């Protein structure tokens, strides 16, 4: 490397009459040579390549502030960067837009664009969407890792009640945190199943008993099991509510609302049974109790809390609202058309079952969905032809949106598995770097807490590597080196 002021360093701009637009710039990026002309580069003067045109007159310091090395004889600039990404970035000088090639990590490509000082607005919209998706994945990994790191530590400055709240919350909400927590999750799952089975068995006439007034009611044994299950659900909900860090968010969460709906009917019916008879007729009380007992079916949705498959299905359906809307629209149009045609064609038959178009809607629904109960069916030749066309159209209408819905489910399921694996690998690398003493620092706020001695030694050893070479944005502020999570693996 030649030092500033070296006599062997040749004149950078010997021909003063040479215009910058006519200059030939040779760039070597990762062993790949590219030749540019000043008129092309000057279209975007704020980019790094455009700055190379004018840096020659600035001397040694100006040149090496922009590149990694420079050959004065060949007037060739050297950069230790990704050549594949560079080939995509230089398209901006020729086409005014940039497309990422398949196989390039979006996060790495974004860092390359920042290095070459090319604005992200030149990136094509499809590539921006891919970049946004990858950012969301990294943020989700960072969130999961940070939650695990937070669970490992105990803040000595917190009160005993706060620490107890965290332990209860982790015990009930995070089965993976310990073996007893997994046991509690399994017990909760079993109570849900038992409660659902008891609710179904209570409707079997042979298992019911007759009270003094001759009314059938559930067997006392089943009623006792139901009471025990409700007691478990109530205790679980109250403990989770007390230990939740954000009680308003907890109360408004969909799954917690389901929990309330599964518990509330029992207490309301109990209140009506003991107190309602004094305020209204006994028959009205019994009807209200029966209606509330039907609401017990809501507890089956509690299984979604313990089933990642049900959660994935729910998310896939949320992401498939457009496809589901198309399905309903296709069916609605077909039902209206074929029910009207069926009603019109069957009017000539004296024993027609199509009394009106609204009544024909039911026939169209069960025909287009290929259910075919047979309670309403055409008797004329034209009616049968209309029915054949209707169920063929129904099969096509149902089959078309199914594939995108299945793709959404598979994509989200695979994505969750990848995120879980990436979070585990990140923690493993943190532990490895901590054991080998390769960590170079941590986030500034965590360093302050560490200096003040507010963390336990075990927690501190995990936190110190939160900016490890895996580089997750939410765990580190460093942005100038590549990382394993940014690779395309």
Automatic annotation (TrEMBL):
Superkingdom per UniProt: Eukaryota
One Gene Ontology term, aspect cellular component: voltage-gated potassium channel complex
Coiled coil segments of this chain: 415-452
Keyword Transmembrane helix: yes
Similarity section: Belongs to the potassium channel family. F (TC 1.A.1.2) subfamily. Kv5.1/KCNF1 sub-subfamily.
Stated role: Regulatory alpha-subunit of the voltage-gated potassium (Kv) channel which, when coassembled with KCNB1 or KCNB2, can modulate their expression and their gating kinetics by acting on deactivation upon repolarization and inactivation during maintained depolarization. Accelerates inactivation but has relatively little effect on deactivation. Coexpression with KCNB1 or KCNB2 markedly slows inactivation.
Subunit structure: Heterotetramer with KCNB1 or KCNB2.
Descriptive protein name: Voltage-gated potassium channel regulatory subunit KCNF1
Protein source organism: Mystacornis crossleyi
Lineage, opening ranks: Eukaryota, Metazoa, Chordata, Craniata, Vertebrata
